[in-house]
Amino acid sequence: MSHTCLFIGRFQPFHKGHLMVLKGMVKVCGRVVIGIENPNAPFSFENPFSFEERKEMIQRSLQDEDLIPKFNIDLIAIPDHALDKTWADQCLQTVQDVDTIWTGNEDVKKCFEDKNVKIQMIKEVPGISSTIIREAIKNSEDWKKKVPDAVVQVIVEVGGVQRMRD
């Protein structure tokens, strides 16, 4: 039986820190599931990219690194739920046979603490976070070095820079 790892995040946008985590995950996980949170969130500064746009960012970034199709990686939507424990149960039902949850979010960690899965906490890369990147885009500051080239392409293609500034 292969070791299944679930990496949960909003990926608004996907950045080099996320990519570093995935490069590490493929070394220790037989199957990697990337759970993209809030697939139906209304557009806002905190959620400027749709589920499909974020999925595209991640897929292209992984392809550029030659991680697809070498490794067993799936991308799925993780719908939001008002109750944390119900949300955690939904995640585990959707993915099935999860051995380890990978997250940098304390709230996510708390949701899974009594769910009989291992939790691998991820350290944030200094200076790289989706919040910092969104602020940099909005303020016309340099942000492109913090994300994979594929993400820059997707953000430009979908009009994300203008979306963030409006």
Automatic annotation (TrEMBL):
UniProt GO cellular component terms: cytoplasm
Subcellular location: Cytoplasm
Alphabetically ordered keywords of this record: ATP-binding, Cytoplasm, NAD, Nucleotide-binding, Nucleotidyltransferase, Pyridine nucleotide biosynthesis, Transferase
Organism: Candidatus Uhrbacteria bacterium CG_4_9_14_3_um_filter_36_7
Family assignment from sequence similarity: Belongs to the archaeal NMN adenylyltransferase family.
Keyword Transferase annotated: yes
Domain Cytidyltransferase-like positions: 6-135
Name this protein carries in UniProt: Nicotinamide-nucleotide adenylyltransferase
GO MF: ATP binding; nicotinamide-nucleotide adenylyltransferase activity
PANTHER family: BIFUNCTIONAL NMN ADENYLYLTRANSFERASE_NUDIX HYDROLASE, PHOSPHOPANTETHEINE ADENYLYLTRANSFERASE
Source species, domain of life: Bacteria
Cited InterPro entries: Cyt_trans-like (IPR004821), NMN_Atrans_arc (IPR006418), Rossmann-like_a/b/a_fold (IPR014729)
Recorded catalytic activity of this chain's protein: beta-nicotinamide D-ribonucleotide + ATP + H(+) = diphosphate + NAD(+)
BP GO terms, sorted: NAD+ biosynthetic process
Protein EC: 2.7.7.1
Pathways per UniProt: Cofactor biosynthesis; NAD(+) biosynthesis; NAD(+) from nicotinamide D-ribonucleotide: step 1/1
Keyword Nucleotide-binding attributed: yes
